[in-house]
Amino acid sequence: MRTGRLYSVFKAAIIAGLAAGLAMGLFHFLLTEPVIDRAIALEEAAAQSYGVTVVSREVQKGMLVIGSALYGALVGIIFALIFTVLERHLPSRRPDIKAVALAGLMWWSVALFPFLKYPANPPGVGDPDTMYFRQVIQFGFMAFSALTMVIAGAGYWRLRRQWLAPRLRRWRLGIAIGLYGFLAMLLFILMPANPDPILVPSDLLRDFRILSLSGQVLFWVGLGGVSALLLRRYAGKELLRE
């Protein structure tokens, strides 16, 4: 990949990540924070009974949008790295469609699928003694989820090199999807469940999870969409010409 092309990919991905992160941060600031305020009252009551100091809400709210933007920029860099490595393996010849496809795959493997196993919980849920264990299994699930996607993709491209006939395309795709489905199901079954009971009101839990998932959808749609628009613009300027 030429230096100019590489620069364009990273520029597009970082700008898209910043924009998506800001959008997600504003979304949570406007819509999710009132739900968190309800949950934080329960957490503060429990913390006072245990003598635990809770970080002020002013500090948390002030860091929300900034932290989301930094998170978006970091994810944008990772997105650009993966895009440069896998570009020739992604569907279509257009870089904007490739960007949308990669964003969709990443959204499923590191956001939605892990969310189905370990849905987000509001503040105050969970035993502090199990916090590190819960973090390990959540991040471990994300890593293994991404790995299963890589294995299935590698299997597809290996079959593509060996089964060259166009009529075998559906077989290649079917085998790859079946392999991924088997590995994903195995991962979902074998990974341990969240060990802590959920004691917050059901309506609060439902609202928080819906808003958390909506924020993730907004982020990945923003990352993929803005990246696609910028890459198409750069392609029009012949910055991404092979």
Number of β-strand runs = 0
Order of helices and strands: HHHHHH
Roughly what percent helix?
A: over 70%
User: Structural class, from helix and strand content?
Assistant: mainly alpha
Number of helices: 6
The major pleated sheet works out as: none
Instruction: Describe the global form.
Output: flat
Q: Roughly what fraction of the amino acids lie in strands?
A: under 5%
* Poorly predicted parts: 49-54
What layout of secondary structure does this protein have?
Blueprint: H1 3-50, H2 57-86, H3 95-117, H4 131-162, H5 169-190, H6 202-236
Helix pairs in contact: 1-2, 1-6, 3-4, 3-6, 4-5
Describe this structure in words.
Helix content is about 80%, strand content about 0%. It is an all-alpha fold. The chain is flat and about 65 Å long. The chain folds into 2 domains: about 1-125 and about 200-240, no CATH class; about 130-195. The protein starts with a helix and ends in a 6-residue tail after the last helix. The protein is built from 6 helices and no strands.
Question: Short description, anyone?
Answer:
The chain is mainly α and 242 residues long. Helices cover 79% and strands 0% of the residues.
Features:
242 residues, mainly alpha, flat
